[in-house]
């Protein structure tokens, strides 16, 4: 990548590549520096902001990470990975309404994405809105009835709503589909 920069000092891909390599090596300051240099030449390149958000999160700078990820989304509105990642950060920061907003944007872009729906249901759960989580998970299961992640989340939601027997049944179904589903196993132990 350094050779590419010698030839073309404005190459966003070279800065991004260096940033990712440094990040994977744990050289977070170098990763941040490379990505920020790339942003100077390429201020409209969403992936530089996305990668910067990842680096800043690893550095423990969660508020700065959310700004970088939101900027990536502003520059490329259909960047689902950035939407998911910033929603996770909002949850860590107890900013559940921001997480919900971002996940609703993401589900609009990718209606079939189980990860988005599971995260959105978890946000509803964290807000104490168990009924909304239940509705979302039940609707999602109509399109994918053997999805162990959705079944696990629905089982937990049903137990939280006091529908213990039905919740346990969903959790048992999740384990039957995927015996390695540790969350379903843990929830079964907790629910009994």
Structure explained in plain terms:
The protein is mostly helical. It is 79% helix and 0% strand. The chain has twelve helices and no strands. It has helices at residues 2-7, 12-25, 28-41, 46-58, 62-75, 80-92, 96-109, 114-126, 130-143, 148-160, 164-177, 182-191. Helix 2 runs antiparallel to helix 3 (28-41). The longest helix has 14 residues, at 12-25. It is elongated. The N and C termini lie far apart (55 Å). 40% of the residues are buried.
Query: What does the average pLDDT come to?
Result: 91
Report the major sheet.
none
Radius of gyration: 20 Å
Could you give the count of β-strands? 0
Strand content: under 5%
What order do the SSEs take from the amino end to the carboxyl end, as H and E? HHHHHHHHHHHH
Global geometry: elongated
What is the terminal separation in angstroms? 55 Å
Unreliable stretches (pLDDT < 50, length at least 5) are none
Bin the helical content: over 70%
> Which structural class do the helices and strands define?
mainly alpha
Tally of helical segments: 12
């Amino acid at each position: 990548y350094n050779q590419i920069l010698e030839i073309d000092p404005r190459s966003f891909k070279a800065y991004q590549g260096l940033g990712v390599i440094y990040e994977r090596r744990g050289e977070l300051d170098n990763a941040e520096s490379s990505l920020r240099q790339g942003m100077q030449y390429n201020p409209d390149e969403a992936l530089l902001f996305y990668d910067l958000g990842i680096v800043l999160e690893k550095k423990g700078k969660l508020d700065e990470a959310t700004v970088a990820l939101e900027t990536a989304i502003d520059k490329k509105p259909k960047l689902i990975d950035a939407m998911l990642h910033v929603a996770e950060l909002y949850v860590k920061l107890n900013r559940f309404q921001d997480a919900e907003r971002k996940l609703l944007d993401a589900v609009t872009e990718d209606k079939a994405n189980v990860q988005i729906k599971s995260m959105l249901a978890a946000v509803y759960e964290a807000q104490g809105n168990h009924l909304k989580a239940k509705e979302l998970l039940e609707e999602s299961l109509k399109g994918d009835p053997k999805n162990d992640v959705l079944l696990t989340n629905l089982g937990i939601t049903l137990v939280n709503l006091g529908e213990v027997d039905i919740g346990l049944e969903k959790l048992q179904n999740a384990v039957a589909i995927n015996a390695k589903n540790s969350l379903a196993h843990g929830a079964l132990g907790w629910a009994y």
